[in-house]
Amino acid sequence: QVQLVESGGGLVQAGGSLRLSCVGSGRTFSSLAMGWLRHAPGEERKFVAAISWSGEKTYYADSVKGRFTISRDNAENTVYLQMNSLKPEDTAVYYCAADSFPRAFPYDYDYWGQGTQVTVSS
């Protein structure tokens, strides 16, 4: 079983920064590709960023490229999302997710965290 717990969300003004963390369980965490996705009210859940199991490859949605950075620390079973220059459009519930099957990007996530709220005010 894989369990994921997000933290680090909150309320921030436009232009500010937040760092989200996702801690995973299990000794096989380091073998899993990980991603961040977000869901805003009235919209579909959208891809934000992803990282390969080794951390060598990263992928970003065009809307966050240059502002967000995904990283991981396999020794701590943790993946991070550093969010800079935040915009009101970034307001959403952010979820981390894991892909249990080894494959190339795009990943197909089958384990999900409970989500953490990010609210950006103008």
Helix content: under 10%
Query: Rough shape?
Result: globular
H/E topology pattern:
EEEEEEEEEEE
| pLDDT averaged residue by residue | 95
Detail the poorly predicted runs.
none
Portion in strands = over 45%
| Radius of gyration of CA atoms, rounded to a whole number | 13 Å
Q: Note the main sheet.
A: 7 strands, mixed
**Class by alpha and beta content:** mainly beta
Q: Total number of helical segments?
A: 0
* Gap from first CA to last CA: 40 Å
Q: Give the beta-strand count.
A: 11
Structure explained in plain terms:
With 122 residues, the protein is mainly β. The chain contains no helices and eleven strands. Strands 2, 4, 5, 6, 9, 10 and 11 form a seven-stranded mixed beta sheet that branches. It has a four-stranded antiparallel beta sheet with strand order 1-3-8-7, with no helix packed on it. A hairpin with a 6-residue loop joins β5 and β6 (58-60). It starts with a strand and ends with a strand.
Search tags:
mainly beta; four-stranded antiparallel beta sheet; single chain; 122 residues; seven-stranded mixed beta sheet
Short description:
With 122 residues, the protein is mainly beta.
In terms of topology, how is this protein built?
Elements: E1 4-7, E2 10-13, E3 18-24, E4 33-39, E5 46-51, E6 58-60, E7 68-73, E8 78-83, E9 92-99, E10 111-112, E11 116-121
Parallel strand pairs: 2-11
Antiparallel strand pairs: 1-3, 3-8, 4-5, 4-9, 5-6, 7-8, 9-10, 9-11
